[in-house]
């Protein structure tokens, strides 16, 4: 089962905010022996968000989505998730209770508390409206929950909220997947060799060792760093060891200069 990430918000695409979710989600997964298979960025457009979610729901993947679950006019993710599944959007009773509790706590600190029968109160409760049948994702920062449905997990755009919520989802629902496959990675830095001349060797290694992937990360260099390629193999440890040994032998036959990555 693949794992995907959808990052929603015009502020990311406009450059007003720098995305921090992608590297953090990769880190959270790696700590648990998992890896991210794909990621998408989507602006605050209802039709595009809905279409993206329709595709991801159909994929059967585990998907995390960040952003757009508030109650301001540019927050559409809750409604788009419901539309993508052709479900009604309803006020979740547990989410309602948590939001109500949060409002009461905030009222103790405010000079102008929120009236519990006023429009602002009901507007805040909209943050608990999710596709029918959704479960909540607890938010340890301020109690305003995210929601889960069909292997999709929707959390706020704020890192201080999103990251512990994603970690909670992984630890609660997917601990049985942690560290299921042993993996290894070995690489060297190869200097002043054309990537195209190494391609046949890379293809031959992947053909011979089906449980590994060969990777090549070229750099054009700079005034202080020579042109080079980070060349390596990753995957099942035993095959990585054998493939890497053959890779080094091939580089020696090329008379290539290389050093540990």
Describe the structure.
This protein is an alpha/beta fold and 261 residues long. It has 9 helices and 12 strands. The chain has a 6-stranded mixed beta sheet with strand order 2-1-3-8-7-6, with helices on both faces. It has a 4-stranded antiparallel beta sheet with strand order 10-11-9-12, with helices on one face. A two-stranded antiparallel ribbon has the order 4-5. Strand 6 and strand 7 form a beta hairpin. It starts with a strand and ends with a strand. The model has no long low-confidence stretch (mean pLDDT 96).
Uncertain spans: none
Overall structural class, as computed from helix and strand content, comes to alpha/beta
- What topology, given as strand order, has the largest sheet? 2-1-3-8-7-6
Work out the helicity level. Answer: 40-55%
Query: How many strand elements?
Result: 12
Distance between the termini: 31 Å
Please give the largest β-sheet: 6 strands, mixed
**SSE series:** EHHEHEHEHHEEEEHEHEEHE
The radius of gyration over CA amounts to 24 Å
Number of helices: 9
Mean pLDDT: 96
Overall form: elongated
Beta fraction: 15-25%
């Amino acid at each position: 089962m693949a794992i995907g990430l959808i990052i929603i918000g015009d502020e990311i695409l406009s450059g007003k905010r720098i995305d921090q979710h992608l590297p953090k989600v990769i880190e959270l997964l790696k700590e648990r022996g998992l890896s991210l298979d794909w990621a998408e960025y989507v602006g605050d457009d209802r039709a595009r968000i809905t279409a993206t979610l329709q595709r991801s729901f159909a994929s059967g993947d585990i998907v995390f989505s960040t952003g757009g679950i508030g109650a301001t006019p540019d927050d559409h993710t809750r409604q788009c998730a419901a539309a993508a599944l052709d479900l009604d959007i309803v006020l979740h009773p547990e989410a309602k209770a948590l939001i109500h509790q949060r409002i009461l706590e905030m009222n103790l600190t405010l000079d102008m508390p929120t009236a519990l029968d006023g429009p602002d109160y009901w507007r805040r409760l909209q943050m608990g409206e999710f596709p029918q049948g959704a479960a909540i994702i607890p938010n340890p920062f301020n109690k305003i929950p995210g929601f889960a449905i069909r292997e999709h997990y929707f959390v706020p755009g704020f890192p201080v909220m999103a990251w512990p919520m994603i970690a909670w989802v992984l630890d609660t629902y997917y601990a049985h997947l942690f560290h299921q496959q042993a993996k290894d990675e070995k690489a060297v830095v190869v200097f002043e060799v054309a990537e195209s001349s190494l391609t046949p060797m890379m293809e031959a290694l992947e053909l011979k060792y089906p449980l590994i992937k060969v990777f090549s990360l070229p750099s054009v260099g700079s005034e202080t760093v020579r042109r080079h390629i980070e060349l390596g193999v990753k995957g099942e440890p035993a095959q990585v060891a054998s493939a890497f040994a053959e890779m080094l032998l091939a580089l020696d036959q090329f008379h290539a200069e290389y050093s540990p990555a």
